[in-house]
Amino acid sequence: MNATTLTCMYGDTTLQQKQLFDRFNVEPAYIRYFATGRLELHISDYDNIQESGPMIYEFPYIGKKNLHANL
Predict the structure, then answer these.
(1) Residue 36 scores a pLDDT above 60
(2) pTM of structure
(3) What string of DSSP letters covers 30-56?
């Protein structure tokens, strides 16, 4: 279950909000990555806990694209 979603909050907003973002020279966006997470706790030689399930990582990016960053 690995999927990545890039959302540009700047493009999905009202004109009034865009004007505010422009005033601060930012174009907010975020990326969301879905994965399966796993956690193991080794409490003692006889007591261990293992869990796994879906996880969501979200990374905000507030700045503007840097065309010189080669990313």
Answers:
(1) yes
(2) 0.50
(3) EEEEEEEEEEEEE-SSS-EEEEEEEEE
